[in-house]
Amino acid sequence: xxxxxxxxxxxxxxxxxxxxxxxxxxxxxxxxxxxxxxxxxxxxxxxxxxxxxxxxxxxxxxxxxxxxxxxxxxxxxxxxxxxxxxxxxxxxxxxxxxxxxxxxxxxxxxxxxxxxxxxxxxxxxxxxxxxxxxxxxxxxxxxxxxxxxxxxxxxxxxxxxxxxxxxxxxxxxxxxxxxxxxxxxxxxxxxxxxxxxxxxxxxxxxxxxxxxxxxxxxxxxxx
Amino acid sequence: xxxxxxxxxxxxxxxxxxxxxxxxxxxxxxxxxxxxxxxxxxxxxxxxxxxxxxxxxxxxxxxxxxxxxxxxxxxxxxxxxxxxxxxxxxxxxxxxxxxxxxxxxxxxxxxxxxxxxxxxxxxxxxxxxxxxxxxxxxxxxxxxxxxx
Lengths: 223, 148
Prior knowledge:
heterodimer, A: globular
């Protein structure tokens, strides 16, 4: 089983990810071909220059916009989600164990962080994941829109980290845990382009799509 | 026809309207992470004691989301069900903000177009929290009920 998940299944996961990514990229390109009407015809630079404010008014303006920002509205969630997503990327890329495997297989060297730090990041990531689970269960507005998929995707995201943590600390049988760890990572990779985890990729591009004041570059497909 | 009674629906027309923007709208529905972070950006959500039914993502999922899910089986009762959500619970002010960059107001606008094309529409006093029976003359004027 270990050889299967380290060998052919890993290539299947990569292939599914790449095919899915290309499919989604083409889909996004096609749907954004037609430029939509921009109903807020004031550019960002113009917005900044409107009005002649005193320092006190500037401070007040800044306070109001901060209060209405994501950080102002949801300070805890914004901080937790930022930490969660940073850990999600940094931990697997700079993990010594992963880089040793990479070197062994393809003779590629990446920068590695000390194991104690990546171990700490994993723990933080798991705590953030647990926070999101609790939030989804407790907060009424989230309960109202949550489906089985939302819980399942959270599990898919957390599973590689949880099993990796268990494997590193050699809790339970090491080889079995390592196999489950690799398998869960492959499942996550395959799920990225075909589930809501797609926001990992499209978070950055989607903002150019919006033809409102929240959009970048005034509407769709201007990147 | 009495208030609340489902009207016959031109399924072909509804399907055409939905298919016109299918790519972009389905991609947006697919990308919604159900994070609920759009809630506070809606003035009506704040005004109604953080009632989840006023949350932008709730409105989209339960209107346009349902329309695409049942694209071949859209009927009058489905449109009547979502009428309150997209006409009363949303004023289409465009203040809704999605951290993933989804254009929520455009999606609600499409759901409204579909409803309106089938004669299902909202009335202004709804947005002030009024009930249908409080404004029979307004409703009859909009063609929502027939005069006796």
